[in-house]
Amino acid sequence: MHLMVAGSAGASPAGMNKSGTQLISATTSDVKVVGWAVRAGYEESSIVSNELVVTDDVSAIIRCQISLTATWSPFTGSLQVSIMRNATVLTTASFTSGTATLSLPDLALELSGGDRVWAQMTNTTSTPYSRDATLQTGSGTYLSIDLA
After folding, report:
1. Which of 29, 42, 54, 59 minimizes the number of CB atoms within 10 Å of its CB?
2. What is the pTM assigned to this prediction?
């Protein structure tokens, strides 16, 4: 289960769906999204330590959507999702109050063999208006690397 080099006859995308719910507590930062399973149509994926691992250089488009079990409606603070490449933040987006799903903009970039792509979250709500969030399991919460 590997992402192959672009241009080879066996080049394949990689993707994973959230498997199980996950609590993102108030006043937490940089919490890794954990508990992933290979996404349908992405059978060649390599998931190691909750990260998609790239085996060779590839031109890619990263796609991510995070769904919650309930609508996000904080009084103050925000709920943010960051897409990471290794230890570097590639992009960050925040949930809008009154929504339960965040689709991050597609991100086109070059990935190198050994790169790890993963998601982390930050919840800046705090007392007296703390608000926890729970990530939804299934195909509505996903991270994928498609070939460009």
Report:
1. 29
2. 0.91
